[in-house]
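Incident log, support desk, overnight shift.

02:14 A customer reports that sequence design results differ from what the structure should imply. Their input is reproduced verbatim below. On-call engineer (initials T.W.) acknowledged and began investigating.
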């Protein structure tokens, strides 16, 4: 019925967007429909207090670009529609500059500038497409389409009016700020459109739903139905993937110990009742790590000891210094919670391997025997990979070749989210249920997801599947879609009948040995307390963050360095955290501890994620665009090399050992490969030295295929890094001098679009002063 409402429209612009080649050829059917809806929303002038959100599972940046393209085409058509459109529809739709908030700035610029908008015109003939930042200056009298990193919107929107703001929230960083971005947009435009993965119930509420936000859900069935509307088929299938819950019940003692921790986490969260509970967030983080461990915990603790966040032992020891005495909820549950955490840690320390190791090994064996082209395994931390991969290679035949070819990849949860936002969606094995704001990935996935759970987590996992889909069940109904469309002028024919309601993803529970678990009734949403949501509640005690660490901020300790900048901003860093400094006189970039910063120094920051490191950010975006085999090879090499360095704190002894095995490079060169810096040289340039270094790592010592695959990948990376370094220095000079910003960005785009997108998020701040703040562990 909803599809009939759009199909029966006689509006000429709608017809052109749906059925003619006016949008880019890559636009999918649901994106064309989204564009038509957006244009009609602009034409009908939605109330100033209501935004429009397209919720799209596994969305990528292309969808928002196509919505912007439709709006610009629609604006041109309605502005110049005399004699072809009704008189009341001949007018400007976009009264002012347009802002597309996105991480994918370079691709958006290239696509929009070349967009045909009618009668031989390109978009760039009518609109100037420019990057929005405090370094941007107007270069022509044309109206502008601004492409803005999400961090720049708040900095640049105050006191300005725009014709429309479209928010591409496909990237996890932008998605986490969706309520803030919509609120900022509401202060500078009447036409606000967001494109994002399906938000949680609490995020929808924070965005103003339902009074200030209208939502359209593009579930797989609706995307399939959109093909009927546009009368063409997409090059991809729109399916709903099944979810398999694998119950790892082979270790009763470990299962019971973890269940006891979970029991007291629930008790503490209930007792807190939404109020601040000192230490609860730390305990939840420790439990979440323990339930994902698949390797010998004693070995993992050794590897993780020198990582930024430290190992579990350190984090558990810090619990003894947490203070909350005098609060009934804390006094009656905290001692038991800490005791349960320590007991579970002791039990796992005694394991040579865990039940989840054999479960993931079984999943890999089944995959390798299948015809499925790619599998992604999501692990708890990068520290675990150096131990997990060699152990799996011992028991899973063919895994080494699958890793070398990129058919199997191992990633952390945050990297998985970024890869999905880039369009890399593959069948997935989760070592534990998703948490930390990433559960939106569980809403209508298009691929199969295998989730490994302990017995006490089975009903929790099932209830969570019901919980995350609950906000969307009403929007699946055809009647709800028709109510959404009617104010925009789309009405179904009287003879139309409702479309069937789409089904939710099927959940299958199976023991790790392959036997199906009998489920008598569906899991009830109210059956289990949702701890993850409570920890995200207001007042739950979020602290200073270090987003580049990949760890929850609450596990970090130590004094804080508060840096005041000359523009009036103040930012807090951990005292032993390094930041990037641009030395403009020499054109070099150095990393310094936050407490070592000096007045007048130029600190390289990012407007969207203040605590990112420059190298980390560049590696993240460039890596996500590489072919799977290169991406996997580089990820494995960086992880393995880092843990080799961590296992050998005495670098002089390690160098001597390698020299005895044939290493030709001197000590200073060797240090450039293994020093504790994100921008260290990635690997030796000569294969002979690379082989000597790599063979100190078990994964490469046993596999010539892996060795050669890694060397090829790092050679390509070395070439990219050299060119990137030159381009980066030119860009930073332009930022500091205030001259040539757009030209420097254009130079970066000619090198790599992903690199230019990173540069577009850069803000260089000048240090005014630094002070140390002592920090306690009672938060």
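02:41 Re-run completed on a clean worker. Output:
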């Amino acid at each position: 019925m909803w599809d009939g409402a759009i199909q029966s429209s006689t509006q000429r612009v709608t017809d052109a967007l749906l059925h003619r080649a006016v949008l880019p050829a890559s636009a999918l059917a649901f994106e064309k429909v989204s564009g038509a809806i957006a244009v009609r929303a602009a034409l009908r002038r939605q109330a100033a207090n209501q935004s429009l959100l397209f919720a799209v599972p596994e969305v990528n940046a292309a969808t928002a670009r196509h919505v912007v393209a439709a709006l610009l085409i629609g604006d041109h058509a309605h502005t110049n529609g005399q004699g072809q459109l009704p008189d009341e529809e001949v007018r400007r739709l976009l009264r002012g500059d347009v802002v597309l908030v996105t991480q994918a700035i370079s691709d958006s610029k290239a696509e929009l500038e070349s967009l045909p908008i009618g009668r031989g015109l390109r978009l760039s003939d009518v609109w100037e497409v420019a990057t929005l930042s405090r370094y941007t200056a107007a270069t022509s009298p044309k109206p502008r389409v601004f492409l803005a990193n999400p961090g720049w919107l708040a900095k640049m929107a105050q006191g300005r009016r725009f014709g429309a703001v479209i928010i591409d929230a496909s990237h996890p960083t932008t998605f986490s700020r969706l309520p803030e971005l919509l609120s900022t947009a509401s202060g500078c435009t009447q036409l606000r459109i967001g494109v994002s993965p399906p938000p949680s119930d609490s995020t929808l509420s924070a965005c103003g739903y339902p009074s200030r936000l209208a939502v359209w859900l593009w579930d797989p069935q609706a995307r399939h139905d959109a093909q009927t509307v546009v009368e063409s088929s997409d090059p991809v299938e729109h399916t709903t993937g099944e979810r398999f819950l694998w119950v790892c019940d082979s270790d009763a003692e470990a299962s019971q110990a973890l269940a006891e921790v979970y029991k007291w986490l629930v008790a503490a969260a209930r007792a807190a009742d939404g109020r601040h509970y000192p230490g609860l967030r730390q305990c939840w983080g420790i439990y979440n790590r323990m339930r994902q461990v698949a390797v010998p915990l004693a070995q993992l603790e050794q590897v993780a000891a020198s990582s930024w966040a430290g190992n579990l032992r350190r984090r558990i020891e810090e619990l003894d210094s947490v203070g909350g005495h005098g609060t009934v909820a804390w006094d009656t549950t905290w001692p038991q919670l800490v005791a349960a955490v320590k007991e579970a840690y002791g039990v796992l320390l005694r394991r040579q391997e865990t039940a989840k190791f054999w479960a993931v090994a079984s999943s890999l064996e089944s995959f390798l025997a299948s015809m499925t082209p790619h599998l992604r395994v999501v692990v708890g931390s990068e520290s675990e990979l150096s131990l997990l991969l060699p152990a799996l290679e011992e028991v899973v035949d063919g895994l080494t070749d699958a890793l070398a070819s990129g058919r199997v990849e191992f990633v952390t949860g945050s990297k998985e989210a970024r890869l999905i936002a880039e369009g890399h969606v593959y069948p997935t094995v989760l070592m534990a249920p998703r948490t930390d704001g990433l559960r939106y990935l569980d809403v209508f996935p298009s691929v199969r997801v295998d989730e490994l759970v302990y017995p006490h987590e089975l009903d929790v996992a099932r209830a969570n599947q019901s919980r995350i889909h609950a906000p969307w069940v009403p929007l699946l109904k055809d009647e709800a879609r028709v109510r959404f469309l009617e104010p925009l002028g789309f009405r179904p024919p009287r003879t139309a009948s409702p479309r069937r309601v789409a089904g939710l993803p099927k959940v299958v529970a199976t023991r790790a040995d392959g036997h199906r678990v009998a489920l008598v009734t569906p899991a009830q949403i109210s059956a289990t307390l949702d701890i993850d949501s409570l920890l995200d509640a207001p007042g739950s005690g979020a602290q200073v963050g270090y987003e580049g660490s990949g760890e929850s901020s609450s596990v970090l300790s130590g004094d804080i360095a508060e840096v005041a900048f000359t523009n009036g901003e103040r930012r807090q860093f951990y005292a032993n955290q390094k930041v990037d400094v641009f030395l403009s006189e020499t054109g070099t970039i150095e990393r310094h501890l936050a407490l070592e910063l000096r007045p007048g120094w130029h600190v390289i920051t990012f407007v969207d994620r203040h605590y990112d490191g420059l190298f980390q950010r560049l590696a993240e975006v460039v890596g996500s665009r590489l072919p799977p085999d290169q991406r996997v090879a580089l990820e494995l090499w960086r992880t393995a090399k880092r843990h080799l360095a961590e296992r050998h704190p005495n670098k002089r002894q390690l160098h001597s050992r390698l020299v005895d095995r044939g290493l030709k490079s001197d000590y200073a060169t060797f240090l450039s490969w293994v020093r504790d810096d994100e921008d260290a040289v990635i690997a030796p340039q000569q294969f002979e030295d690379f082989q000597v270094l790599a063979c100190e790592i078990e994964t490469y010592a046993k596999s010539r295929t892996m060795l050669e695959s890694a060397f090829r990948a790092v050679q390509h990376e070395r070439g990219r890094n050299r060119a990137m370094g030159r381009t980066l220095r030119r860009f930073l000079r332009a930022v500091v001098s205030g001259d040539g910003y757009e030209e420097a960005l254009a130079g970066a785009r000619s090198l790599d679009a992903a690199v230019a997108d990173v540069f577009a998020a850069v803000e260089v701040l000048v240090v005014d002063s630094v002070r140390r703040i002592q920090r306690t562990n009672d938060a």
